[in-house]
Amino acid sequence: MQPSPEEIASWLRAAQRIVVLTGAGISTESGIPDFRGPEGVWTKNPAAEKTATLQYYVQDPEVRRQSWRNRVNGPYWSAEPNDGHRALVDLEHRAALDTLVTQNIDGLHHAAGTTPEKIIEIHGNVREVKCLSCAWRAPMDVALARVRAGEEDPDCPECGGILKSATISFGENLVAADLARAQAAAARADVFLAAGTSLSVYPAARLPEYALANRARLIVVNAEPTPFDDAADAVVRDRIGQVLPAIVAAG
Ligand code: NAD
Predict the structure, then answer these.
(1) Which pLDDT value is given to residue 234?
(2) Are residues 210 and 242 in the same domain?
(3) Alpha-carbon distance 234 to 147, whole Å?
(4) pTM of the entire structure?
């Protein structure tokens, strides 16, 4: 039998170190589609996976042109935090939130008001643009302005290299210090909450294993099954925007 929201809330209240891992599912209620859910970008258009894969992005100018069109027209620039993001801000005020690791690149945890030092954006973010050849970086607006002015695939103003959002694509290494910090936090956690993630993108999806090795309680909030459901102390397959505020408020 699944524990009640009150019981889950009591675990959060008693915890010394809570680590939260969020994925694309926490932002769908803000109008940003996930990749693998029923309404996911890849579920509807499997070819779209190429734009998130470094090898295709580097090799194929058409993939880059498509990526820039997606960035200009994407939902990121107008999206607002939802009740799920706000519940995690509330959790920080009511309980011992240690670290919030997010696979999301949308910046909505920052926008909601979670303390920035507690957030690890393990897959980077879309607010910056970076050159794949040199160290040049700039606010994303700089590149989007060039695309809006007619450039289909803007190049690096320093070295002519390929530009990409400062996100971690498939085939690209994570920032080692961010991953180490996330793993260390998970290994110290006594409660680990995974919300809105299919737990299928590695190495982020391995973080619950670090917590379980520390005998942490594992709470999974996700609309669809995940590979960790059998190991979890609680699995809630409901809408995050309802579930998280209910759990946090019950504490
Ligand atoms: P995913 O697409 O693999 O899984 C998302 C999960 O969330 C799905 O299982 C889906 O059923 C569930 N879900 C969707 N809406 C929900 C809701 N309202 N309530 C409960 N569950 C809900 O996402 P992932 O595991 O984060 O991994 C995919 C990668 O996609 C990540 O690396 C991330 O960087 C990237 N991504 C980010 C964004 C974003 O920043 N908002 C959006 C799309 C993809």
Answers:
(1) 97
(2) yes
(3) 46
(4) 0.95
